[in-house]
């Protein structure tokens, strides 16, 4: 379903127009799946603000059923950065099943901020009434934690072990802490 917006596959030069065309096609091809697309506003956004404007959220019908049926206990947010041409973080919403972690929703935001992350979650929450996880696991990132705690008030946020260990190892290697002298 997903494809790259390469020069050969472009309908128009503007990537946002290309994405709008793709979203319309995906909606037509998969009418039971959910797509939300908000392009960057025509009026330039102040780059010093937390708000960017761009938001793309996707959830298949199957993912929605899984989330409502099993996603009330522990949810994991896996965030991916700097893996493509544009510096736009991808957030995968997952939970552990008897056969491994399953993605139950995804969103891409234009700028990593609490407000933008909350906006992505708000779309997923609107699509899945009654979704209220007891626990949420995420990176040690104040923007992610703040967005989750603000939108899911009764939810306890835990830090992902892998990311915690990764952050600790990076901190230990930094020369400014004078640990290798």
Automatic annotation (TrEMBL):
Domain ZSWIM1/3 RNaseH-like: 57-157
Superkingdom, natural source: Eukaryota
Pfam families: ZSWIM1-3_RNaseH-like
Protein name (database record): ZSWIM1/3 RNaseH-like domain-containing protein
